[in-house]
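Try this one yourself first.
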């Protein structure tokens, strides 16, 4: 076998190399080490700075954010990394309607634009955390793929059609479903359910107005809402067992950890008190609520796979 001649490099890595992602992760690990006020969340070459502030203190939040952005900019200059400032933007998520506007946010000498929504690892976040834009994008993407599949629906047997919709359509709905499925409105969930119903009709050869409940059960599929409940409860259970990720585990506390008196409900997760509907979208609220609604036979299982099977059996029985 012939190989090309070796090439010595003093900086950077070849595009598509196996070690490239690992070396980049090691190289960029110190990017947030000097930040004073904000928190850095990064995945590969995608990074976000998060600053929380009280109502009426937007100006001070912008000041400390600009200070940390200056640190990031100086770090990139020292290490020879070019920041794509055109793709950088500011997303403000107020806790109530009518919050003050965000001031001038600078990265170097460039003012960052303020946007109403931003894509984060494939999830479309908006300023109101309604995630309606993400649901609309999912529906457009899945319906486009489903239309292509319908053109060749007579070429494949039923088993192949089921695998196609699971791989090309339902997988798009399932992506990040525990994240946005517990937040979106009932109307948005119905949009996703209609897409799933179209998939069932495609697989089973049903007409437009035929009922799909029996056909869906024959395929072994849960509704979108039940799938969200199943995956969310398994996520909470896995976090409790493994303790990872830590920033989510610290939001799940049993009653025995916050109350001095011992009761039979010591293992029930403590739910924070909420005063506004906006606060119900927090993981710290809906995760304990979902977990506490499970039966004791499910939460008492010691193995994650048993927990998943018991949850799925319970959801199908509804």
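Now uncover the answer:
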């Amino acid at each position: 076998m012939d190989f090309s001649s070796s090439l010595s490099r003093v900086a950077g890595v070849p595009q598509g190399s196996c070690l490239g992602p690992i070396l980049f992760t090691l190289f960029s690990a110190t990017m947030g080490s000097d930040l004073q006020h904000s928190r850095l969340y990064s995945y590969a070459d995608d990074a976000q700075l998060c600053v929380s502030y009280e109502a009426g203190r937007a100006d001070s939040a912008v000041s400390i954010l600009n200070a940390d952005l200056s640190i990031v900019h100086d770090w990139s200059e020292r290490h020879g990394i070019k920041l794509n400032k055109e793709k950088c933007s500011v997303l403000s998520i107020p806790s109530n309607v009518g919050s003050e506007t965000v001031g001038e946010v600078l990265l170097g000498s460039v003012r960052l634009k303020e946007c109403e929504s931003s894509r984060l690892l494939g999830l479309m976040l908006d300023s109101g955390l309604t995630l309606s834009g993400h649901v609309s994008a999912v529906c457009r993407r899945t319906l486009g793929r489903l239309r292509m599949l319908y053109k060749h629906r007579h070429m494949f047997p039923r088993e192949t059609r089921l695998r196609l919709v699971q791989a090309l359509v339902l997988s798009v709905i399932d992506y990040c479903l525990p994240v946005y499925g517990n937040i979106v409105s009932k109307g948005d969930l119905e949009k996703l359910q209609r897409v799933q119903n179209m998939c069932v009709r495609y697989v089973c050869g049903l007409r437009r107005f035929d009922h799909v409940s029996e056909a869906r059960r024959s395929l072994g599929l849960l509704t979108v809402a039940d799938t969200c409940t199943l995956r969310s409860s398994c996520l909470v259970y896995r976090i409790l067992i493994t303790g990872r990720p830590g920033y989510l585990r610290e939001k799940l506390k049993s009653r025995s950890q916050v109350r001095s008196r011992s009761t039979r409900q010591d293992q029930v997760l403590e739910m924070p008190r909420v005063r506004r509907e906006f606060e119900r979208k927090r993981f710290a609220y809906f995760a304990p609520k979902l977990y506490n609604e499970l039966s004791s036979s499910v939460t008492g299982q010691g193995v994650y796979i048993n927990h998943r099977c018991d949850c799925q059996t319970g959801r199908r029985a509804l």
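Discussion: Residues 132-221 form one domain. Confidence is low (pLDDT under 50) at residues 299-305.
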